[in-house]
Design brief:
mainly alpha, 176 residues, rod-shaped, 89% helix, 0% strand
Length: 176
């Protein structure tokens, strides 16, 4: 019973506010069709043109970026080639300078060695002449001592030529 009273009360309330009427369906469908026509004819082509223009500018931007990147890479390659060339030239100059310095150093060393050899030869000559003079003085002193010793032992003066020969023979390393 309760259900039947509720149903009777619902019938008494009038039309359903949620259910659309025929006129509303007609006006909604007509408005939709007009809006669909306006969108299809006027708005969608303008949006498409705008999107195509935007995509075109993006595509051009990518292409110009790729061209710029390729140009930059070629510039970097040219720079690296020029840098390698400069480094090779610098290395060649350093080697040439090193060879020049080595040649100059060797020339100076040869000059100094020749001066040293000349001074050594002069010193050897001076030393040899000093040795010869000292030998002569030693030989004379030994001859005097030998003459004096022989005179004291024998009681008479020995022959000077015999003493000189004996001293020279002894000083030269031979025995007579």
């Amino acid at each position: 019973m309760l259900i039947s009273t509720i149903l009777l009360a619902a019938e008494d309330m009038g039309p359903n506010p949620i259910a659309p009427e025929g006129k509303e369906l007609f006006w909604g469908a007509g408005t939709f069709l007009v809006f669909l026509f306006v969108m299809r004819v006027f708005l969608v082509p303008k949006v498409r043109k705008g999107m195509e223009a935007r995509y075109g500018s993006i595509r051009e931007g990518h292409e110009s970026a790729q061209a710029t990147r390729a140009a930059a890479q070629s510039d970097v390659a040219k720079y690296e080639a020029a840098l390698a060339e400069v480094r090779a030239e610098a290395a060649a100059r350093v080697d040439k300078a090193r060879q020049t310095l080595d040649a100059e150093r060797q020339a100076k060393v040869a000059e100094v060695n020749s001066r040293i050899a000349a001074k050594r030869a002069e010193a050897d000559k001076a030393l040899e002449s000093a040795r010869a003079a000292a030998r002569g003085e030693v030989a004379a002193a030994v001859g005097n001592v030998t003459s004096r010793a022989a005179q004291l032992v024998l009681g008479k003066s020995p022959d000077a030529a015999l003493v000189k020969r004996a001293v020279d023979s002894t000083m030269s390393g031979g025995r007579s």
